[in-house]
Design brief:
By secondary structure, the protein is an alpha/beta fold. It has 2 domains: 249 residues, Response regulator (Rossmann fold, 3-Layer(aba) Sandwich), CATH 3.40.50.2300; 148 residues, Rossmann fold (3-Layer(aba) Sandwich), CATH 3.40.50.2300. The protein is built from 14 helices and 14 strands. The longest helix has 19 residues. The protein starts with 7 loop residues before the first helix and ends in a 5-residue tail after the last strand.
C-alpha cells in the first residue's frame, strides 16, 4: 500500500484465520504454486501462448505524477480443472486493461500474482490465504466459483482487504453477506437467470419448461432467478433437476426425463466443460430440433468450437455479446484479438472491468491506498463504468445494474439477437 506497509494487525488476523479455518496449504500445493520471482515487464501482448495468460507481471508505471510504488494484485482464478479456460480469459482481460492504461492507476505500478483457485471451496481458501499471507497482496481480483467466494468472504472482510469478484455470482455476496470490501463486476446468479424468464414466456412457451443446473450455489441460484421471472410472467415449470457438479459425465437420465414428461422447452445453466458435455449430449439424444434449449451462459466464445454443430440454435442470455454494436466493444475486441490471438468472452470483459474499477478508484484517491476506507468508498462512489458490454453502474450492494442480451448460435457463431433490457439483482 502506498506510503504504508500492511499493518501488523492485519497480518496477525490473516494468519489466525488460517488456523481457525483449518485450511493451511499442504507442502505439495505450495510447491506447485511457488511464485516466479523473475517477473516479466512485458505487456499482455507479449504473451507467447494465446491459450494461457502469464502468471505474474510487473507493469511499469509512467514517468511523472503520483507514486510509482507497486500495488500488488492477486489474481485468484482457476488454472486447472473444468474452468481452466475461464481463468485464462479473466487473467488476459485484466492484463489487457492494465497494459493499455498504464497511466490510469494514480501513478501506481501494478504487479500481478496469479494463483489457482482450484475446484473446491477448500482449494480456494488455501489459494486466498497464500495470496494474503505469503504474497502480501494489496487486493485480489477474480474467483470463478460461488462456493469459493462464499468461503473466502470473511478473510477479506475481517482482514480489510478489497476483493473485486470478476465472476462468482452468489447472491449472498452482495446480499445478506455483503461487505464494504467486496465488489462485483460480473452479475449475481439470480440476476443472470432472471434475464431470460420473460422472453421464454413471451416467445417460446407459457408452460412445460424443464429446468436443469448443477447442484452447487451458482447452478441453484441461476435456476431460482429464471423461475422467479418466468413464474411472475405466468409460466409453468414442469420439473427442476440438479446433476452433481464437476462429476456428472453422462446426462442421459436427465435427457430421458425431458422426453418422458414431454417438456416443451429446457432452460439450463452450465458453464465450461460441463456446458460442452450437456449441449453435445442434448443433440445426441435427438432433442436439438424438437425441444428448444435456452440458458446461461451455456454457449461462450471459450468453448463454442468444442460444442460444434450441437450448439446450433441454442439461445442464451448474458450481459455481453461479442458483436455488440458499440465503439467501446469494437475497440476492446480488436485489442484483445491482437494481444492474444483469440476472441474475448464475458469472462474477459468482467476482469477487464475489474481492472477499470480499480483504476477509477485509484484515480479518485490519487493512487493513495493508505486509508483503505477512503479507497473502497472511492470505488463504491463511481457513477458509471464504460464497459465493452455497455455502460453499467453498481447498486448499493456493489453489484452491477446492467443490460442483458439474447444471443443465438448461428452457423457456429454466437450472434447478438436482441436487447433484453436492464436487469438488477432481483433478490437483493
Amino acid at each position: 500500500m502506498q506510503g504504508n506497509e500492511p499493518s501488523l494487525n492485519r497480518r496477525m488476523f490473516l494468519r489466525g484465520a488460517a488456523g481457525v479455518l483449518g485450511a493451511v496449504a499442504a507442502p505439495g500445493l505450495l510447491a506447485a504454486c511457488t511464485r516466479n520471482d523473475a517477473q516479466s515487464e512485458a505487456s499482455p501482448a507479449a504473451d507467447p501462448d494465446p491459450g494461457t495468460a502469464p502468471e505474474n507481471l510487473d507493469f511499469e508505471a509512467p514517468d511523472g505524477g503520483g507514486s510509482a510504488d507497486g500495488l500488488r494484485v492477486g489474481l485468484l482464478v482457476p488454472t486447472s480443472g473444468v474452468y481452466t479456460t475461464l481463468g485464462s480469459a479473466m487473467v488476459q482481460g485484466f492484463n489487457l486493461f492494465v497494459g493499455e492504461n498504464l497511466d490510469a492507476f494514480g501513478g501506481r505500478r501494478i504487479e500481478t500474482v496469479t494463483v489457482d483457485e482450484g475446484e473446491t471451496p477448500e482449494s480456494g481458501v488455501e489459494a486466498a490465504q497464500r495470496l494474503l499471507n505469503e504474497e502480501q497482496v494489496d487486493l485480489v481480483v477474480g474467483i470463478v466459483s460461488s462456493g469459493v467466494a462464499l468461503n473466502v468472504r470473511d478473510l477479506f472482510d475481517q482482514g480489510q482487504v478489497p476483493l473485486i469478484i470478476a465472476n462468482a455470482g452468489a447472491g449472498a455476496l452482495t446480499g445478506q453477506a455483503r461487505s464494504p470490501y467486496l465488489f462485483r463486476t460480473s452479475f449475481s446468479n439470480a440476476q443472470e437467470g432472471y434475464a431470460l424468464g420473460q422472453y421464454m414466456y413471451d416467445n417460446v412457451t407459457e408452460q412445460g419448461v424443464y429446468l436443469i443446473g448443477p447442484d452447487y450455489a451458482a447452478g441453484i441460484e441461476h435456476l431460482v432467478g429464471f423461475r422467479k421471472a418466468y413464474e411472475e410472467a405466468g409460466g409453468v415449470v414442469l420439473r427442476e433437476s440438479h446433476p452433481a457438479f464437476a462429476t456428472t459425465e453422462d446426462y442421459t437420465p436427465f435427457l430421458d426425463e425431458i422426453k418422458e414428461i414431454d417438456a416443451e422447452a429446457v432452460w439450463a445453466f452450465f458453464s465450461g466443460a460441463e456446458a460442452v458435455r450437456f449441449v453435445q449430449q442434448y443433440a445426441e439424444a435427438g432433442l436439438q430440433d424438437d425441444v428448444p434449449l435456452l440458458g446461461t451462459p451455456l454457449t461462450d466464445e471459450n468453448w463454442i468450437e468444442a460444442q460444434g454443430d450441437a450448439a446450433e440454435g441454442v439461445r442464451s442470455s448474458l450481459h455481453y455479446a461479442l458483436d455488440l454494436d458499440l465503439d467501446r466493444n469494437r475497440q476492446f475486441v480488436s485489442a484483445y484479438q491482437a494481444a492474444y490471438g483469440v476472441m474475448p468472452s464475458s469472462f474477459s470483459v468482467q476482469a477487464y472491468d475489474a481492472a477499470q474499477l480499480l483504476a477509477l478508484g485509484l484515480q479518485a484517491t490519487e493512487g493513495d491506498t493508505s486509508n483503505m476506507e477512503a479507497f473502497i468508498e472511492a470505488m463504491a462512489s463511481i457513477e458509471e463504468i464504460d464497459s465493452p458490454r455497455g455502460a453499467f453502474t453498481l447498486d448499493g450492494n456493489r453489484n452491477p445494474v446492467q443490460s442483458f442480451y439474447l444471443r443465438t448460435v448461428e452457423d457456429g457463431e454466437i450472434v447478438y439477437t436482441e436487447d433484453l433490457g436492464v436487469v438488477a439483482d432481483p433478490l437483493n
